[in-house]
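A brief tutorial aside. Many learners find it easier to grasp structure tokens once they have seen a single protein encoded end to end. The record that follows does exactly this for Glycoside hydrolase family 15 protein. Read the sequence first, then the structure, and try to relate runs of similar tokens to stretches of the chain.
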Amino acid sequence: MDDAFTPLREYGVIGNLETCALVNREGSIDWCCLPYVDSPSVFARILDPERGGRFAITPTGAFETDQAYLDRTNVLETTFETESGTATVTDFMPVVEADRVEEPQLRGLYRKVACTEGSVELGVAFEPRYDYARSETAVDEIEAGAVATNDRRQATLVSPVELDVTADGQREADGSTATNRGAETERETETETEAEVGNGATAHAEFDLSEGEERWFVLRYSMRAPSEPDDCQDLLETTVDYWRDWVHSCEESECLFGGPAHDLVVRSELLLKLLTYRETGGIVAAPTTSLPEDVGGVRNWDYRFTWLRDGAWVVRALTNLEHVSEAEDYIHRFLERTLEGDTAAVQPLYGVEGDTDLEEEELDHLRGYRDSRPVRVGNEAAEQQQLDVYGELAISIYQRLWSLDELPDEDWEAMWGVAEYVCDHWDDPGVGIWELRGEPRHLVHSKLMCWAAVDRAIKLAEREDCEAPLDEWRDCRTAIKEAVLEHGFDEELNSFTRAFDGSTMDATALLIPVMGFLPVDDPRIEGTIDAVMEHLMTDDGLVYRYEDDDLPGEEGAFVLCSFWLVDALTITGRTDEAWDLFENLLEYASPLGLFAEEIDPETGEFLGNFPQGFSHLGLLNSALYLYEAEYDWATVGPLGTPTLVQEERSD
């Protein structure tokens, strides 16, 4: 691997329910968009070590390093051990209760540097590059530290040490020039104008710390006066309390999630919360863009948006951990904001504030992570027809029943609209969950989720005694099921497939038992599981999502699909196999307990955007299925609500 790039598994993530930042093991913030997660980047070194920009605090000499989160929080500590001593950088973005979120000083990135043993010399390098390093960034010294501006943005670095500003060139944290780093790397045709993009000044300094001393560096989005150290420490303690009060609490010996999964369940829970946008309840798929699924290839996409599908799955996972308010926020704030009562106007994805215009653009001036180009911002998948989304919406509404005394009228109106739309359009072709960029097809998973949408609408009407055209909906449900069974199952493979009348395997077939489409003891279910294991699973238990997608290059195994196999095995009673696979998957987590979208089966390297919500909700759901299978649900007591599958099996 090119040493200029940090392996994805060596990053931690922090955030404030508005945006996130990625911090590597050397104390460098290599990715951060301000003020929101889908805003243009301020630091993008992860996509271009020379031009992207960073904010590093690192020892000036040789060191060994380790990272860890403060227990049950999203507060990250990076510890450096040098010959002369030990220092720790504590990174966080303040998160407090909602009534204090508007305080401007809370919108910042806080870095506490403390020497815990001996003495350590450290360097700081502040290299902001606004707008994905497309525009000139001015960095000027001020009494409090430095201010970074361009024609639209301004941020202040409050520094306890005097900073030296150097124009037109980056510097290492130890102060050495880095203007020509990576210059030997071959690039595609590059004009003189492109070569100048992203130039800007750097603020840097060196400072010494002795045991017991600490310094605070605060990056804020305004020119407000600097915070005193005591104020910073108060914010740290408040933020720690926020995360610990929010995350589910139990003694490991008494927790449904015991054993090796417990800490990873907690980390997944915290990560999914970190991906939520407090203002609207939207949930982004990942906080990054264009981290490649195929290193050096073109499979590079922007995931800093809210997919209705992803959001629905995350909400269900968090609801099972008793985080009901996230479901309320997502359904009654984000969905109301985006859909505005018009079910037919559903897009697969939106901006975190409900934006509908997500025009895709390629940033040719950026090198891309490990030379994977193009770098994309925006996502044209927003314009696609993805019928499976309607099933996800319906299931989310359906599951909310367990936390409500009565069904709100607006929920029933939304469910009605979903069922009516699906009955009119279920036999339309589409691109489906994987957003394949070819001709629309009749995809089995899309039909499955259309069936689920109508099925849940019928069950909701029956349970709540709602007036509805039940005969029409039942006929529609039957028609969808008959079509899937006739055209979506390949006798030779003994498996459900990707598309009607096709023979290409797709891991989404594993969701057929999860949705309750067929009884779990139906031989076609067992055949499908076995076929996925034969055709899509690696020797190490990782699962590819499909056999091909018409794009150049090859991607890695898909983490979520690997957890789907765990779910399917558990639901069908093959729990020993499920446990073996689950425990093997946990071994692939990063040292901080994080997952990317994909894993290279040959190297274990993370691929795709990171950290990935899909992967962590898969872990949560698999843990829930496995531990439910271990215990009698009634005696253990739920962390959340019974799963849909349990209800289907009891009918």
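Self-check: The radius of gyration is 25 Å. If you spotted this yourself, you are ready for the next section.
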